[in-house]
C-alpha cells in the first residue's frame, strides 16, 4: 500500500507541476550492514595474485576491497598500510593459521581477511575471480555457513532469494556428506551383509550438521568453552564477467546511485579497470553478507530527468 500511495503522489505532482514533463525513475536501493557484532574490527592482508596475468595490480584490489568493506555499516577496517607494516615487523607465514591469529592479536582485530585473485582479464569482456577467507582471531569461533541468520521458520522465509536457499542447502549438504566420507583402509571396515539381510539403522553421527544451525542459538547463562578449530569462519569464491547479464544488470543498478559525473553510463563504468575491480569487490562483500543475514531494508529512491 505504501508503494501505491507513493506512486499516486508522484502522479499528482506530475500533473500539478506546469512544464513537468519528465517521468521519474524509481529504484530500490539495497542496504547492507555487519550482521556479526563479534567481528567488528577487521584487518586485510594484501591480496595474492594467483591468476595467469602477472601484471594484475594486487594493491589496487586490496584497496578496493578495503574501501568497499569499510563503507559497510558496522565494520572498522584497519588501514592497509598499518597491516603491511605489521607484517614487515613481525614476519610470519600468512598460510599458517596460528601466525595469522598472532597478527590479529597484534593489530587488535577480530578477524584477518586473506584473499586471492585466481583469474583475471583486463580486456573485454573483463573477468575476475575472487577467493576470500576470513580467519577469526579467537580460535573458538566456528564457521558461519551461508544461510546463517536468514529468517528461516518465520513468515519472512518465503522472501529469501532462491539463490540464497540453494547455496545454504548446498553448503549444508557438503558438511553433512563430509561426515560420511569413506575412510580408506586396507580392508573394509564393515563387510557387506548377505543379500536380504537388513542392516540396523543407527542414530546420526555426533558431528552431523543440523539445519537448525542456520538459526542462532539462544544466549547462554555462561560463556561456552572454546573448541579450537583452524578453518576459516567465512569462505567464499566468486567469478565475475563483464558479459554476464546478471552481473551487468546489478552494475547498472549500482551505478544509478553513484552520482558519477563522468560520461559513459554504467557501460563506461565497467570499462574502467579500477571501477570494474571496485564493483567486483562490492559484489563479493555484499553477497557474502546477504547470505548471512546482512541485507537490510531497501530504500525507495526517486530521480527526475534532466528536463524537470
Characterization of this structure:
This protein has 308 residues and is of the alpha/beta class. It has a domain at 23-143 and 229-303: 3-Layer(aba) Sandwich (Rossmann fold). The chain has helices at residues 2-16, 58-70, 80-90, 97-107, 162-178, 245-256, 265-271, 273-290, and strands at residues 25-29, 41-44, 48-49, 76-77, 111-121, 127-136, 234-241, 299-303. Strands 2, 3, 4, 5, 6 and 7 form a 6-stranded mixed sheet that branches. Strand 5 (111-121) and strand 6 (127-136) form a beta hairpin. Helix 2 crosses helix 8 and helix 6 (245-256) crosses helix 7 (265-271). It is globular and about 65 Å long. The model has no long low-confidence stretch (mean pLDDT 84).
